[in-house]
Request: fold
Amino acid sequence: MILFVPRYQKFIWLTIVLCRLVSAGDVFALCPEFESGYSTGTIQSADLDEASGLAGSRKNPYVLWTHNDKGDSARIFAMNMDGTHLGIYNLSGATNRDWEDIAVGPGPVDGICYIYVGDIGDNDAEFSSITVYRVPEPEVDSEQAPVNVTLEGVEALTLRYPDGAHNAETLMVDPVTKDIYIITKKDTYPRVYRAAYPHSTTATITMEYKCELPWLYVNKGDWASGGDISPAGTEVIVRNYETASIWQRPADSNLWEAFAGPECSMALLKENQCEAVCFVSGFACGFMMTSEGSSEPLYYYPRIFEGDFDKSCRVDFDDLRLFGSAWGSSAGDDNYNPDYDISDISFDFIDEHDLAVFVYGWLSEI
Reply:
């Protein structure tokens, strides 16, 4: 047994200590790493020519949700990761004044995943209120023939800003608190507003202003055009027309506090009208993006998990077992494996520096 081999005693104790430190937030949060983006396919529905939002299903593997911008009927589209059209889902009782984003997350019934559609666009900042539609996510098979159905039980949440009208294209739902977040588009700095849970379906909800993003408006490319919160609620991604940034949420903190922390910026592939982004998890690990237009590509940016030695898209005890098999080894030893030499501090030796990187990867999954 590994517990009784002296060479592993330091490995075991260091693992315990590092887990305690990282879970307590005492270790500096490293920026997540992603591979270069690549196209997984193109949007194949001829009816979808202005995709303005994107959401990765938490219920249906390999399924993405999207919608057209203003001018379309009140419908959302299901597709899989290569863009194959799976169906049109009409929202009963809803209207599309200016739909700009879509999100998935929890809602009033525990254990049910909901789709949220943001009728939040307001180019001239003239509307006294905005609407977010909420409906339970239906069952969708990633290989089904296209369907055209109507979703009943759609709830309209009427929201207003505390300081007057704003234009916005970013809607997010916190999986931890069920709060709704809106990030504005055309302000000097993008402004973050929260509609705290629970959400009335009969009265207008006045949102709370929480903070600004550190993006000074210089030109159109700086506008916040989409965002998402990771399924575990630990990270937030917001994009503009040229780049995207991820902020990490400290343990046991409010979501908006993440924006006071380090900003992890990422270069993106060149797109057209770049407005849609979402995390994908469970059936993939990373984030996806697309743009407005006909037959637009879907781009996938896979996440690099330091310590995911078995390539399972997560860091867990199976990876710890593999790492432990090479603990204390040096280049040339029979049990040395360069794949486990993951620290930038020490080289050709598997030691506590590699273990620290591994433990961080284990405890900082999306």
